[in-house]
Specification:
The complex is a heterotrimer of chains A (254), B (321) and C (290). With 254 residues, chain A is of the alpha/beta class. In chain A, 39% of the residues lie in helices and 23% in strands. Chain A has 10 helices and 10 strands. The radius of gyration of chain A is 19 Å and the shape is globular. Chain B has 14 helices and 4 strands. In chain B, strands 1-4 form a two-stranded antiparallel sheet. Chain B is globular. Chain B has a domain at 23-234. The longest helix of chain B is centred in the N-terminal third of the chain and has 27 residues, at 23-49. Chain C has a domain at 19-218. Chain C has helices spanning 2-31, 39-56, 61-84, 92-114, 139-161, 163-173, 175-180, 185-207, 217-232, 237-257, 265-277; strands at 119-120, 130-132, 135-137, 212-213. Classes of the chains: A alpha/beta (254), B mainly alpha (321), C mainly alpha (290).
């Protein structure tokens, strides 16, 4: 279980996150929502090691993640995607995913130099896994194309595939529906549900309310760097504080 | 088709001394080989991790001096001296690799230049060790059992073996999970981290292997020219390596070799026509033109033309088999 | 004590010219984000122009200095327009390679044009040093120090007080807003590069008569300029000024008290240490410009 405890992030005079605490139930789909500037991506960055929190702790299944590098956190099973599309643009879709399977491989420096036979077998099985993941996200018809050349929506699917390749136990999705058309969002929602069915816990930041309310088990609301509400989607929609936070926010959101 | 071409090339390389007309041509082949090793080493850093090291001459020089000093002053035999030279260069690479962790891009370039500058100044000033600007003459030729590899032909085969070994190491690294991790670091470091690629580990690995390989080149150079002086740290060597990699095609396996052959053979061919200053001037112009006209280098462009379509990636991934 | 003061004074003379190099580069590297490895070549160019003016044309020192600045700035403008403008949206690595190419080409052109033998620039000043209390200084060096100081002040004034300077600061703080406000972005880039190159040429013209002039003198000058920029913080004019003076003094003290063979190492060591421990520079402040 991923637990965030009194997480605080301050830069210069600005407090981006203050005393943020919540727990993500294993196997659930939890969404983090809030007006722009509420600190959602900051929270993701702090949880996954891209930002060092100024206070508080993040733990997963009891082990502390606070202060670890992102690669170490990924190794413990917590993987994130990025708000701005993040793929390996010059690589093909299937090579993107193959690269994502880094943690699944075991080839170390000396084994690679020696050209051990078991590595050939490992490469073959990784290639098969990569193909399977590409099929899962529905990009089979694009697998040999350069990721950078794909249309936006498909690039985000590549991103998702790469994250899945890292075999996360907790998957943090930063605005998976951003910039997508309605039908693309339905596809993504379906994928998220299927990911959850495979036992992966999903934590997502999202602005599209229909998407959030449609797939989430729990919704956490951040505003001004604090948690102001947490509960089932229906309860959150009716929550007075939440409504006030959205209406009172200077920059509008979805 | 490519495989057949590869075998043909191998046979040609193995029999080269027999159909070259003079020892001078063999000399050119030897220098092309040494620079091939150097270019491949720079390519590991520049082409695969995307970090430009303009101090690569430092590793070359460390390898040359270490090998020369051990055989001259401590009277070691060539092979252990070579091993130590490669190891020392690798250790220097370890420190540069750790430096790179904090710095990227232009700052990394500046630090590598500064490192090379300091090492160069040491080689000039620490006269008790290096004999200063006068250099170390009389570096012994390598021996293989009872034979002394003194002739150009014999040395050619030594260099050819080194080139083959370096190529093999690069190829195995690049076409593996390690190669994918390096490319991931180059293309999108934040994403690479998020999928578990340990940046420290792979940058340092690339730097160590790259430096060690350059040290190998240095040792080969020292025992061929039989003389080492602070001139090995001349920026011209680094520049030549950079041009070879960039022109040949950074991030490809064949690129550096093509670049090495081209930029060793061409200057020699033009030697009668123009002095080395004109060559260096041409290098400068060529580099600028390359950036504008052929940014990915010769090998990828050739690859595109031969394949008849635009390829998606300049990298050699493992997946498509 | 007198010896220390002497070293300090010598260091200031050197440092003044390093400051000029640094100010030029901090604008180019710090603001335009161009890794200008050819910066030292403009320095060399300035020295050769000074040589041509003084030794060949028999001109006056001021004329030589002005000529150097003009030639440096003009060539800088040309380079920016032909080489950098088309690559403006490329990565920093690409422009870096182009500048390396320019570096090699310029240096070898100079080698071909002037030959590799170092030249000495004749100057009109008496050689007997002026004695000022405990220290002595050659009139030439005093003159160089004064001119360097004047140029530094002029640069500060240009950046802070003139319309061009304001436009430069605006462009580099927020390019899009500046463009909307009618600032000609391309012109500002070209002007900045020209300005930086002109200052480098001035540094070369000033130091040329003190030392010898030879084609590869720019290599160390480039690196020392980077060292000053890193020390002072990118885009930071006062930082570059102070950094330049510091470098000059550190080199003189090092050469005097430790070893003269390693004097050039000071710049290298500064680069390595500062980047490792205080990458934003010793004098870094909040805003990036002046």
């Amino acid at each position: 279980m991923l637990a965030v405890d009194e997480l605080a992030v301050r830069f210069g005079g600005v407090t981006a996150l203050e005393r943020v605490s919540f727990q993500v139930r294993p196997g659930s789909i939890t969404s983090v929502i809030g007006p722009n500037g509420a600190g959602k991506t900051t929270a993701f960055n702090a949880i996954t090691g891209y930002l060092r929190p100024t206070g508080g702790r993040v733990t997963y299944d009891g082990t502390s993640l606070t202060g670890l590098r992102p690669s170490a956190i990924a190794r413990r099973g917590v993987v994130r995607t990025f708000q701005k599309t993040s793929v390996f643009p010059v690589l093909t879709v299937v090579d993107n995913v193959l690269t994502g399977l880094h943690l699944r491989g075991t080839a170390g420096f000396f084994a690679v130099l020696a050209g051990r036979r078991r590595l050939v077998a490992e490469e073959r099985s990784l290639a098969a896994e990569a193909s399977a993941i590409v099929d899962f996200v529905g990009l089979t018809h694009r697998r040999f194309e350069a990721a950078g050349a794909l249309p936006y929506g498909e690039q985000r699917l590549v991103e998702l595939a790469v994250a899945l390749a890292a075999r996360p136990r907790v998957l943090l999705l930063d605005e998976p529906g951003a910039g997508m058309t309605g039908s693309e969002r339905i596809v993504v929602s379906g994928l998220i549900r299927r990911i959850r069915e495979q036992g992966v816990t999903v934590l997502l930041v999202e602005h599209d309310m229909r998407m959030v309310m449609g797939i989430s088990d729990t919704v956490i609301v951040l505003s001004g760097g604090r948690v102001i509400a947490e509960g089932a989607p229906a309860a959150i929609q009716a929550h007075p504080e939440v409504i006030r936070a959205y209406l009172g926010a200077s920059a509008g959101s979805a | 088709m490519i495989r057949a071409g590869g075998w043909l090339l191998a046979v040609a390389a193995l029999t080269l001394p027999f159909w070259l007309q003079s020892p001078y041509h063999v000399h050119v082949a030897i220098m092309a080989g040494i620079f091939g090793v150097l270019a491949m080493s720079l390519n590991l850093l520049l082409g695969y991790t995307g970090q430009l090291s303009l101090g690569h001459a430092a590793f070359f020089g460390i390898g040359a001096y270490a090998s020369a000093l051990l055989t001259l002053k401590l009277e070691w035999s060539f092979w252990p001296a070579l091993a130590v030279a490669v190891a020392l260069a690798g250790i220097a690479g370890f420190f540069i690799g750790r430096l790179a962790l904090k710095l990227r891009g232009a700052y990394f370039v500046l630090v590598t230049i500064s490192f090379a500058g300091v090492i160069s100044l040491i080689s000039v000033n620490w006269i008790e060790l290096t004999n200063g600007p006068l250099g170390l003459p009389g570096v012994p030729a390598p021996e293989l059992g009872p034979w002394s590899l003194r002739t150009k032909t014999a040395y050619y085969y030594l260099v050819l073996a080194a080139v083959a070994l370096s190529y093999l190491v690069c190829r195995r690294l690049v076409r593996s999970r390690i190669g994918r991790a390096l490319v991931a670091l180059r293309e999108n470091e934040a994403l690479a981290e998020s999928i578990g690629v340990d940046v420290t580990h792979y940058l340092v690995l690339a730097a160590v292997v790259s430096a060690a390989m350059a040290g190998l080149g240095g040792s080969l150079y020292a025992h061929y020219t039989r003389f080492v002086s602070p001139e090995v740290f001349l920026f011209t060597y680094t520049v030549t390596m950079v041009i070879m990699v960039v022109a040949g095609g950074k991030g490809t396996l064949a690129g550096p070799l093509v670049g090495a052959v081209l930029f060793t053979a061409l200057p020699e061919a033009l030697r009668a026509a123009a002095s080395w200053q004109w060559q260096m001037l041409a290098y400068g112009v060529v580099l600028v033109l390359l950036v504008f006209l052929l940014p990915r280098g010769i090998v990828p462009r050739l690859g595109e033309t031969l394949a008849g379509r635009h390829s998606a990636a300049a990298v050699a991934p493992a997946a498509r088999h | 004590m007198a010896e220390l003061l002497q070293h300090l004074l010598n260091g200031l003379v050197l440092g003044g010219t390093y400051a000029l190099l640094g100010i030029g580069l901090t604008l180019i590297f710090g603001l335009m984000n161009v890794v200008n490895f050819a910066h030292g070549e403009f320095y060399t160019l300035g020295a050769y122009v000074c040589f041509a003016a003084l030794a060949l044309a028999g001109a006056d020192f001021f004329v030589a200095l002005v000529a150097a600045i003009v030639v440096g700035a003009a060539l800088g403008w040309l380079c920016e327009v032909t080489l950098l403008r088309p690559l403006r949206n490329e990565s920093i690595d690409t422009t870096m390679l182009v500048m390396i190419g320019l570096w090699i080409a310029m240096q070898n052109a100079e080698l071909l044009g002037w030959g590799g033998v170092a030249k000495s620039i004749p100057h009109p000043f008496p050689t007997a040093p002026l004695v000022l209390g405990p220290v002595a200084i050659a009139p030439l060096r005093l003159f160089v120090l004064a001119l360097a100081a004047a140029l530094i002040v002029a640069s500060w004034l240009l950046i802070q007080k003139t319309k061009l300077g304001r436009a430069m600061r605006a462009t580099f703080q927020d390019r899009d807003t500046a463009a909307l406000m009618g600032v000609g972005i391309s012109r500002i880039h070209a002007a900045t590069f020209a300005f930086g190159s002109g200052l480098a040429a001035a540094a070369g013209a000033l130091l040329g008569p003190i030392f010898l002039v030879y084609p590869s003198m720019g290599d160390l000058a480039s690196l020392k300029a980077f060292s000053v920029v890193i020390l002072g913080g990118l885009g930071n004019l006062p930082g570059a000024t102070l950094g330049g003076l510091l470098l000059g003094v550190a080199e003189e003290l090092g050469a005097g008290y430790i070893s003269s063979g390693y004097r050039d190492a000071v710049g290298f060591v500064i680069i390595i240490l500062v980047l490792l421990f205080r990458p934003s520079g010793l004098f870094a402040r909040q805003e990036r410009i002046a």
